[in-house]
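Slide 14.
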Amino acid sequence: MKKKLFLDMDGTIAKFNSKKNALQRFDNEIGFFASLKPFAHLDTINNLITNGIVEVFIISASPNEQADKDKMIWLETHLPNLVKENICFCRIGTNKAKAIKEQLNIDIDSNCYLLDDYTKNLTEWNNCNGIGIKRLTSLADNSRKLWKGLEIKDLRELTILLS
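Slide 15: predicted structure.
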């Protein structure tokens, strides 16, 4: 069975927290998310999509439909080959595994990987039989050791991890 990689966006593939007052702006500033810079080596994700090594999905939480539209613009710009049917937006605080089941009708299992920078999301994913991967950045460094599972610092590590 082909592996499935589910990607969070904010702070995982898009440099969300590098913007001043990001959370407040994200909630009401039209175009805020669409203007974010991608993290280095996003081409790794594009290669995974193009090569079909794994099936790539987006599961991203946002505060409202305007933010969803901005995220879609970002995805069309930075991950142009991503299949639109593989994009799932949910509201902040939603269990991402449950959102995937409800919106995309996919049961999470041991072939389903979530790359996220937020430990709560990863824990919920693992509790639904998936495999969480913590995205380590300068702001999400797991220094408190709350996450005990897989971790990566560089997106290029996904190719090795998922092969």
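Speaker note: The mean pLDDT is 93.
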